[in-house]
Amino acid sequence: MKHILKCKSCGSYTLKEKCKCGEKAFMVKPAKYSPEDAYAKYRIISKQEERKRNNMIK
Fold it and tell me: Is residue 41 one of the residues assigned to a domain?
């Protein structure tokens, strides 16, 4: 099964390992959800702090 990849340098999307510009492409899909995620707590805190800085929450 092929996945959509994105080039680091030019930002274009491709299905090949290397972009037309010659740079290596990487997968842009997020990681799978895991209920045993060891870092979820830190991501939640980080998102809350960012929202507070942007005055989205009190």
Answer: no
